[in-house]
Specification:
With 234 residues, this protein is an alpha+beta fold. It has one domain: Ribosomal Protein S5, domain 2 (2-Layer Sandwich), CATH 3.30.230. The chain contains 5 helices and 9 strands. The strands form 2 sheets. It has a 5-stranded mixed beta sheet. Helix 1 crosses helix 3 and helix 3 runs parallel beside helix 5. The longest helix has 26 residues. The chain is globular, with a radius of gyration of 18 Å.
Amino acid sequence: MPRIDGRTNNELRKVEITRGFLKHPEGSVLIKTGDTHVICTATVEEGVPSWLVGSGHGWVTAEYGMLPRATTERNPRNQTSGRTFEIQRIIGRCLRAAVDMNRLGENTIKIDCDVIQADGGTRTASVTGAYVALCDALSYMVNMGIVTDIPLVGSVAAVSVGVVNSECMLDLTYAEDSTAGVDMNVFMRDDEFVEVQGTGEASTFGREALDTLLDLAIEGIGKLMHIQADVLSL
């Protein structure tokens, strides 16, 4: 059965990443993955949380939210839910996996991911876009003499996969995600996993399906990392 937008099962939606999207942040991007659009910013601040003071280590943290009309119906502004906290923690974990905190010094980078339009995969798009914003913030820190070199230890990106109508698919739209029998989000640093979230929404799934979904995700994330690298080379 063909997908709603005509893609093959192993095909990403069209991805666009625009650097320097906002004037003020040290790093900012607009990422579009199909009809999911997210603004990701990275803010550099001197100092670290109290438990890191005196350690010489830095910190990367994240916040996530949706504009009221990012979805088909209006959501209350500044609504904080368990889902929001979960996604914030995921974004923070993924980006910390990309940075050597010892080389960051006692500085904090705060990531903000604001979904302006949602059509599935907002958390994965946030991670993929936020990595580019993070890279620009780290370059700013080098240029300002805050750190001596860019303390990256790898590239980070993420994608959704799932089983829809008994078929394994990459990069689900909302319509696909909402009817998926199995839903999974995969987060990677280079060729290693940071986090894998897999749920049998309407059915259980076996090892063969799991392997197929992970293979799809690895292929898709590899393509996303190439897009990130191309954007960062501009």
